[in-house]
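REQUEST FORM: STRUCTURE PREDICTION
Request ID: SP-0412
Submitted by: Lab K.M.
Chain count: 1
Length (residues): 266
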Amino acid sequence: MTTRIEQLQELIRTAAREELLPRFTKVSHEYKADGSVLTEADLAIQKRLAAELAAGWPEVEFLGEEMTAEAQSALLESGKALWCLDPLDGTRNFSGGVPFFSVSLALLEAGEVSLGIVYDPVRDECFAAEKGKGATLNGRALTIADSGLSLDHCTSLIDFKRLPKPLAARLATEGPYSSQRSFGSVALDWCWIAAGRCQIYLHGKQNIWDYAAGYLILHEAGGQSITLEGERVFINALLKRSAVAAGEARLFDAWTQWLGISASGS
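STATUS: Completed
RESULT:
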């Protein structure tokens, strides 16, 4: 029997292949009020997935990135089970022809993330996790292994734009890592840390639809995270969150120590 998470992965795979890939490099874009980019592909895949999720799981409400903030807040405050979708995470990459973007879907139940899926249609990589059941990549168990690296030999994933300026300047001139990357899809950032492709992570401001699924995937793979303020990253609210993360506990401890954070989050 096909499980729910397998059904969801196939649903997202099919939608991304049919709605995103044919439009890649072929759509115009506009700018939203917050300066982020919007294309017809964002709207098309959100509309499709909203309908398909409602048909398959009518008892679960739906929150998509391309909804009003008032509607999003009301849904989060309702206490009901809720799909949380970023239909196209990395829209600026998508609109510019950069092949790094994803679809991110999380299931929120009782104020927690219980299921997460992040799909990269360019690489046909589907990351998934259920709370307490571990994480997978294309159906195979995803568990973070010991890299043997010290902090000064790590590759970091850092988005400088949204960090406090003094911290960004310190990282640019005194960064404790070996190399730094910024790819442009928050959801995939979390998953690439979980896959061991980079070892440490830092981002200044993420929306719940950006990070919810990736957050669960990283934690179910054995990783750790915290905010710059020393708080748990995930909260069931429409608030932007900073995120400091690492796959390995010893690197997480070293990274948070360098940043001056008390590692009490989860």
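NOTES: The longest helix spans residues 4-20.
Reviewed by: T.R.
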